[in-house]
Amino acid sequence: MLMLLAAHARSSSDPQAVTQFARVLPFVGLRALTPAVVILLVTGVWMILAGAGWSFSQFWVQLALGLFAVAFLIGALYMSRIGIQLQRAVTTAGADAATATTLLTRWLVGYGIVLLVLVIAMWDMVFKPTI
C-alpha cells in the first residue's frame, strides 16, 4: 500500500502530495511496519521450533532467514535514511520539490527491492526447495 501511495504522490500534479506522503511515512513505519516485522520473525521462528519436521539446519529455512535479514537491512539502513532525508526536505523552509521527488523515487526503488526479496522468501517458504 505504501508503494502505491508513494507512486501516486510522485506522479501527482499536487505539489503537496510528496509532503503529505513524507509526513505519513514515519507514522505508518512506527505503528504498522515495525510491529509487522517483529511479528513475522517471531512467528516464523516459532513455527520452525514447533514443527517436528523442520529445523534451522534446512536450506529453505536458512535461505528464508537470510532473505529476511537482507530485506530488514535494506529497510533499516537505506530506506529509513532516505525517509528521514525526505521528511527533512519537505519540512525545511524553501524546500525544493525536485529534491523531495528525487528522494521519493529513491525510496520507491528501495521499497521495490525489499518487496522483491520478500516475494522470493515467500516462494522459498511455500515450495521449500531441497525437501
Outline the structure in words:
With 131 residues, the chain is an all-alpha fold. It has one domain (2-7, 16-127). The protein is 82% helix and 0% strand. It has 4 helices and no strands. Helix 1 runs antiparallel to helix 4 and helix 3 packs antiparallel against helix 4. The two termini are 34 Å apart. The mean pLDDT is 93.
Instruction: Give the number of domains.
Output: 1
Overall helicity? over 70%
Low-confidence stretches: none
- Count of individual beta strands: 0
Shape descriptor: elongated
Number of contiguous helices? 4
Helix and strand content put the structural class at mainly alpha
CA(first)-CA(last) distance: 34 Å
**Structural Rg:** 18 Å
What is the element string, with H for helices and E for strands? Answer: HHHH
- Strand content bin: under 5%
Largest sheet: none
Topology at a glance:
Layout: H1 2-11, H2 17-50, H3 59-91, H4 97-127
Helix pairs in contact: 1-2, 1-4, 2-3, 3-4
